[in-house]
Amino acid sequence: MNTEEIKYLLKKYNNQTATPQEKKLVEEWYEHVNGEDLLPSAFSETEIKSQSFSNIQSRIKVQADVNKPKQIKLFSSWFFRAAVVLITLSAGLYFYLKRTESNPPVISSKLIKTHIIPGGDNAILSLADGSKVILNKTADGQIADQSGVKIIKTKSGELLYRFIGNPNVSATAMNTVSTPRGGQYHLILADETEVWLNAASSVKFPAAFVGKERKVEVTGEVYFEVSKNKTKPFIVHTDQSDIKVLGTHFNVNTYDDEEYQRTTLLEGSIEMKTGNQKVLLTPGQQANIGGKRDAIKIREINDLDAIIAWKNGYFQFEQSDLRSVMRQVSRWYNTTVSYNGTIPTKQYTGKIPRSVNVDKLIEMLSYTGIHCEVEHNQITVNPK
């Protein structure tokens, strides 16, 4: 929440027009900052004086006296943990979104009978012989042996490819790991390259890299931490480009419903090729390709953590439009999204754990002006 919204709530509190919910937010926020200088860079001395906190202190003290010997606990409920971040400007473990206007938040979302749950570790391994293994339903331990390469599911749910001998030519037959909507997975290839798949994604690769290069194919969104090998380049093929690296960290987003294919470099270097164009990326750069014949466009990324937030268990939006926000929600919760009326043209910035249930998600989105109805397996976005 921005400074104007904080001042708005403080004014309502001091004028005794705040709702019980708003009073609780202000009081617990004040208790959280513990009476320190409150946003001195944002408030002038006159404003601070005019927004006197003496009545807040008095009210908290009265409540504390009444409740003794109990101690007042911050973050006493999940709802407050979700909402107080709007007041404190915290970007910690809970969601916040900065609205482009300073209108007061209004909760008007509606939740009806639903079976929507957040995604989790869920993937299918398709072996070279055509057999399939549902990884989230498979016991830990060795899954298969492919001509000198052992495939193991670890206790933590990872998939490992490990040499147990000298792989022969049959070990180059292709395997595929794919995630459904509402799924994600982490695997480690035989060369010790680590791969994370987002929802509705796939990576196709040989059990062992025995040739002069290490080549894989991807769809959806995939993050790579490629093991270094100067003599054997690692190549990622998408339907729009080839990405060549020697050892680096990068994220590829190739979803069909996104406007661009986005390749973002976090560490090392990348050579990208599409058609007759070839570019070299340095850390912090993102290459965007808008169509099969579009030129590669390079842009600088200020917050690389936002790019791989999905890998670390978060949604994180950076000046995203509403449809972009809801596309991510739709994939992870394996639900459909529809819109009533005019779609707002605002941009949203924020962060939310991907582990929250859909009712909490909708409640938190409502603080931004995104009002939804949820029924069965569909989320409907409504105008104000």
Automatic annotation (TrEMBL):
This is FecR family protein. Keywords: Membrane, Transmembrane, Transmembrane helix. Residues 176-271 form the FecR protein domain. GO terms for molecular function: sigma factor antagonist activity. The chain crosses the membrane at residues 78-97. It comes from the Bacteria. The keyword Iron-sulfur does not apply. Residues 314-381 form the Protein FecR C-terminal domain. It holds the Pfam family FecR_C.
